[in-house]
Amino acid sequence: MTSSIPQEKLQGACGLYCGLCPRHQSPSASRCPGCQLGEQHSYCSVWRCAVQKRGYLTCAECTDYPCDKLKRCIGVDADSFISHSPAYPNLNRIRAEGLASHLAGAHERQALLEQLIAEFNDGRSMSFFSIAAALLSPDRLRQAIDELHESIAAGSVDGADVKTRARAIKSTLQALAVQD
Hints:
By secondary structure, this protein is mainly alpha-helical. It has helices spanning 22-25, 45-53, 68-74, 87-97, 99-120, 126-135, 138-154, 162-179. Helix 4 crosses helix 5, helix 5 packs parallel to helix 7 (138-154) and helix 7 crosses helix 8 (162-179).
């Protein structure tokens, strides 16, 4: 049940995919539509440079990539948020394989994130699921979902209790993350 927003509008200039952000997934009034939709992120120097100044969708299009501004904002020493670690690999993938290829993978991750939220969110797990969707491969995400469905079917996890389902899927995702 992914949103009807065009995928390219959910691609952040910095390489992050907004469809995987808990602020975008939130049903609340403060829901973020994504970096490319409106100027709610006009404080972001990367967005201002790539989108406003140069007219690019992402920094991957720029001849100056990777520039000092991008390095300061999402470089190895610049950002301590683990959820931001896919930014450079995403931009590199866009440069190497093209935007359409990257967006296909991002859309798949978003669909899996939305499945995690719909089936396993106990009201406090959206950020965890968003980070997992950003960092784990779609294969690992599907594996976790399949394993939990099997555990529920076998009766080893109480499928009727959302808190139990949330704990079980988080544990499974963490175990799979350690394997990568």
